[in-house]
């Protein structure tokens, strides 16, 4: 394992939720695992009025609450937090960036090395241009080998704004310095897709249109919009999840075999997939894209409000909290194989799963009496909750009569591996420190993803939905999404393992 070079990590917007819930718990765990370099420091910047000690105790609370290792001992926290400082800063004042440059220079001098500099932009998208321009003027981006910028999602809100943001960033730095983060790419089970596909000879020969009937990607959430109403109400499920997380999963599932593990080789192959997605004609969006919004659920003991009744959401909001797409990939491998993707808030369970359903046998030689229960072969990759893989097939049910019954071969991470799984942000932060952009989104991937959702966004924006709310909180989404798949003679598949009770963190 590579230990990164000496690093100064500057977090813009360090007073926000991301730092508290994800970044500092991830860095803290990396330090416990001995993955951070000997010379490492974090400079938190925000306009919020923290002082050094209140900032540290705010972060300590975050670690106690959100770290996968649970509550931290005072001693280990004190050791780690010595390397964390806070500066209250007005992002609009150019002098602040010169001061920052001086602080960073002094730190490097104290270590007697030229440290790598990472600027993590955990800020509202409207501040990005201002910050990168000022960083550039203060000469903080001038060494492409040493300076990197991490940009959080949302990366724009449509094709035009994403292209504009790319232009803004590449005006002041090289593409190789830009790390657009999509935390799904840091998830262990998502990274494992490359291993399953390309480290085994078993799957690749049947991973194509000859054997696969359809592919399904489900990312379902049980939670609603939590504390992010302002952002979510102007985003919706298509922008918040589909354009990024689900498309990244699609890229990994559908890509051609890479020639090497080179960061650009893998990203080239993913771009090829997204470039091959057939664009949905605006006149036929309704046949290929379904939107939904949850209404209240008040059966039994629980009572969940509908989206429109969430605090600070307009009572006539048309924001979709659910989106399902049917896509086609126009290339030799996938021609005519539909890819069904769905994601939503307040669904029946928290599940992220990819399902590859294989074609039926060409001829059923068994008598009808033997084949009363028949399920097509399918491979289920459980990305989230009860993480693992199941391969479903037909077997003879034990007994004197010849009767077939579906059975499954199951792999479970929990049973096969004893190591603790790192959080996605741990993996991704180490990658940025090691200057490895394999699991980050390159500009072309970002823009092609926006081009795919563009016609849908446009139609949904111009045509008001007339059936919202159209699914009950706690259900599996709108009926129209089931109908879209059923029209093709298929159904949404979920692995029984996924719906079992499990670690629902
Ligand atoms: C974020 C979305 O990117 O991913 C959230 O903005 C969503 O709305 C979250 O809840 C889901 O991430 P995970 O890792 O919990 O599946």
Which SSEs are present, and which pair or pack?
Elements: E1 7-12, H1 17-32, E2 40-46, H2 52-66, H3 74-81, E3 84-88, H4 94-111, E4 116-121, H5 128-137, E5 147-151, H6 159-172, E6 178-180, H7 188-198, E7 212-220, H8 229-235, H9 237-254, H10 263-275, H11 285-288, E8 289-292, E9 294-295, E10 322-327, E11 339-344, E12 351-358, E13 378-384, E14 388-396, E15 404-412, H12 413-416, H13 424-433, H14 443-462, E16 471-472, H15 479-486, H16 496-499
Parallel strand pairs: 1-2, 1-4, 2-3, 4-5, 5-6, 7-11, 9-16
Antiparallel strand pairs: 7-12, 8-10, 10-11, 12-13, 13-14, 14-15
Helix pairs in contact: 1-2, 1-13, 5-6, 6-14, 9-10, 9-14, 10-14
How would you describe this structure to a colleague?
With 505 residues, the chain is of the alpha/beta class. It is 36% helix and 19% strand. The strands form three sheets. It has an eight-stranded mixed sheet, sandwiched between helices. It has a six-stranded parallel sheet with strand order 3-2-1-4-5-6. Strands 9-16 form a two-stranded parallel sheet. Strand 14 and strand 15 form a beta hairpin. The longest helix is centred in the C-terminal third of the chain and has 20 residues, at 443-462. It starts with 6 loop residues before the first strand and ends in a 6-residue tail after the last helix. The structure holds 6-O-phosphono-beta-D-glucopyranose (BG6). 6-O-phosphono-beta-D-glucopyranose (BG6) binds at residues 221, 240, 384.
